[in-house]
């Protein structure tokens, strides 16, 4: 009886005595033990009432047990719904109300505050801690170590992942078995993963990057993972010599570069570093190669689509670009629904087996963004060159319209980033009485330095038309980022929104 995702990722682990997970505390978990854990959890969850098609919402600390809950949910034919560990009770209330899960799993320390939320939304509440304790584990203790997964087709849903929702409410992206499996297979092949790979996994598993890109690819190819609770620099440096691959957000790479222990010798065993989820500065790409001799491979994707583009494994990995469309993914760049000329800025649209099934219970939002002919409007603005390489210039909602002119923040940011004393910058549009929006630049100071604002103004004046010049610049210690390393421009707009209005 088929269950496509379980059969490909989890079923093959049964009975294998090899190590699957190396944990931060030195413990190892074999593939067989992980499979047995998945089976016991699935029986426990079934006992707790989970049936095929039910949602299982999970807000727990990263652990092998949490990853096994993903496998168990899929085995039951249910829908895995991981939630960011930073969400508050009020936010959880929204997600449980929207998704109406049968079961909600949280950390034991949050049971008191979240029990009323679960109850109000009709979800059964069980707990699971980062060290593998809690009521779910108690319920799983004496359960059978084998299981027969529930029959599913490739079109059935395996997961709902809520988008980070920087504007408006988060939307639940519905992902089918085929969406996840097809993308994992393409990535495994494109990045040449095999069962000899050891993936350093320091990403959260409530997000597509750590859960699907990293875990699915490693599980599909029968490899091992060094499974760390998060990005702890000491742990990452200690374990890098044992890994062959790492997937990270750009801040992983900047933090590694800040440490003199990052050397060619340290990464001598590594064959591939991959970056995504936020733009990797060209300067980081180059500095990393200078220090280690390895070129980071940058790729681009999103919750709704899995991965869309990637730099090549063997060919030219171009700094500042996210590479070419992956095999099987169609990509076009449009403005007002028409393809733009090569090199012109437009919105990225994608179509392919990776593209999600729509937003959970939001048919109108789905219609707006996912066309009937299968093209999905990503909301990302980019150019594509004659070789097919895509360069992202920003989110459409971050585009600034000042005095009727369009300004792409990235062209201003690139100039400001190169100014002495500037680590990085964020350029946003703020309401302005004359211009509609005015350009506002936030400069983060480089460690122990002070940005030279006169040099910044001069650099902008020399390179950009006047309407693109920031009307104000401020200096801060660091830009606000979310857990995936994305700069939170919405937050900057909120904090500084009245700058030009008083
Ligand atoms: P999420 O759904 O949280 O994974 O966010 C997806 C968004 O992250 C995309 O729509 C892009 O705006 C951004 N993103 C992902 N990868 C990259 C990348 N390599 N470079 C620039 N932006 C990226």
Structure ligands: adenosine monophosphate
Task: List the total number of helices.
Answer: 15
- Could you tell me the number of beta strands? 25
Please indicate the percent range of residues in DSSP E strands (runs of 2 or more): 25-35%
End-to-end separation? 67 Å
Major β-sheet annotation: 9 strands, mixed
Q: How much helical structure, as a percent, in the residues?
A: 25-40%
Radius of gyration: 23 Å
- Which CATH architecture of the domain at 26-152? 3-Layer(aba) Sandwich
- Overall mean pLDDT stands at 96
Strand line-up in the sheet with most strands: 2-1-10-9-11-12-13-14-15
Low-confidence stretches: none
Write the layout of secondary structure elements.
Elements: H1 4-9, E1 19-23, E2 28-30, H2 31-47, E3 55-59, H3 64-75, E4 79-82, H4 89-99, E5 103-106, H5 111-120, E6 124-127, H6 135-140, E7 157-162, E8 172-176, H7 177-190, E9 198-201, H8 208-220, E10 224-227, H9 233-239, E11 245-248, H10 250-257, E12 272-275, H11 282-292, E13 297-302, E14 306-310, E15 324-325, E16 330-335, E17 338-339, E18 346-351, H12 363-369, E19 376-384, E20 390-395, E21 400-402, E22 405-407, H13 409-417, E23 422-432, E24 436-445, H14 453-463, E25 472-476, H15 489-496
This protein binds adenosine monophosphate.
């Amino acid at each position: 009886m088929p269950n496509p995702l379980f059969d490909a990722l989890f079923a093959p682990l049964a009975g294998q005595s090899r190590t699957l997970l190396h944990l931060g505390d030195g413990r190892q978990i074999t593939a067989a033990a992980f499979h047995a854990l998945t089976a016991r959890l699935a029986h426990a969850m079934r006992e707790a009432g989970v049936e095929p098609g039910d949602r299982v919402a999970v807000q727990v600390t990263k652990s092998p047990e949490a990853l096994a809950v993903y496998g168990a949910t899929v085995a039951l034919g249910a829908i895995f719904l991981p939630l960011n560990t930073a969400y508050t009770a009020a936010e959880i209330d929204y997600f449980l109300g929207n998704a109406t899960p049968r079961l909600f799993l949280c950390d034991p320390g949050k049971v008191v505050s979240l029990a009323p939320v679960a109850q109000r939304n009709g979800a059964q509440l069980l707990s699971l801690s980062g060290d593998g304790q809690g009521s779910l584990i108690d319920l799983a203790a004496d359960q059978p170590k084998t299981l027969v997964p529930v029959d599913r087709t490739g079109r059935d849903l395996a997961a709902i992942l809520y988008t980070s929702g920087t504007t408006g409410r988060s939307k639940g992206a519905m992902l089918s078995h085929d969406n996840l499996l097809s993308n994992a297979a393409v990535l495994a092949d494109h990045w040449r993963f095999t069962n000899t790979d050891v993936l350093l996994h320091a990403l959260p598993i409530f997000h597509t990057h750590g859960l699907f890109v990293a875990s699915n690819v490693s599980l599909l190819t029968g490899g091992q993972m060094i499974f760390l609770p998060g990005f702890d620099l000491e742990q990452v440096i200690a374990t890098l010599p044992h890994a062959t691959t790492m997937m990270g957000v750009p801040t992983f790479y900047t933090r590694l570069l800040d440490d003199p222990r990052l050397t060619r010798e340290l990464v001598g065993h590594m064959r591939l570093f991959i970056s995504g989820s936020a733009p990797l500065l060209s300067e980081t790409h180059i500095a990393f190669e200078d220090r280690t001799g390895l070129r980071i491979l940058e790729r681009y994707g999103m919750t709704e689509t899995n991965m869309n583009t990637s730099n090549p494994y063997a060919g030219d990995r171009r700094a500042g670009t996210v590479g070419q469309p992956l095999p099987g993914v169609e990509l076009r760049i449009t403005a007002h629904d028409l393809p733009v000329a090569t090199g012109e800025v437009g919105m990225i649209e994608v179509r392919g087996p990776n593209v999600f099934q729509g937003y959970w219970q939001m048919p109108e939002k789905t219609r707006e963004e996912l066309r009937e002919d299968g093209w999905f409007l990503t909301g990302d603005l980019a150019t594509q060159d004659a070789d097919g390489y895509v360069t992202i210039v920003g989110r459409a909602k971050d585009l600034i319209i000042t005095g009727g002119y369009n300004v792409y923040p990235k062209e201003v940011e690139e100039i400001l980033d190169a100014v002495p004393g500037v680590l990085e910058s964020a350029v946003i549009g703020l309401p302005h009485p004359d211009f509609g929006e005015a350009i506002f630049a936030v400069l983060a100071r480089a460690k122990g330095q002070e940005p030279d604002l006169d040099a910044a103004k001069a650099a902008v004046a020399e390179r950009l038309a006047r309407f693109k010049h920031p009307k104000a610049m401020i200096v801060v210690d660091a830009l606000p980022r979310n857990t995936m390393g994305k700069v939170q421009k919405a937050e900057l707009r909120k904090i500084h929104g009245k700058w030009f209005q008083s």
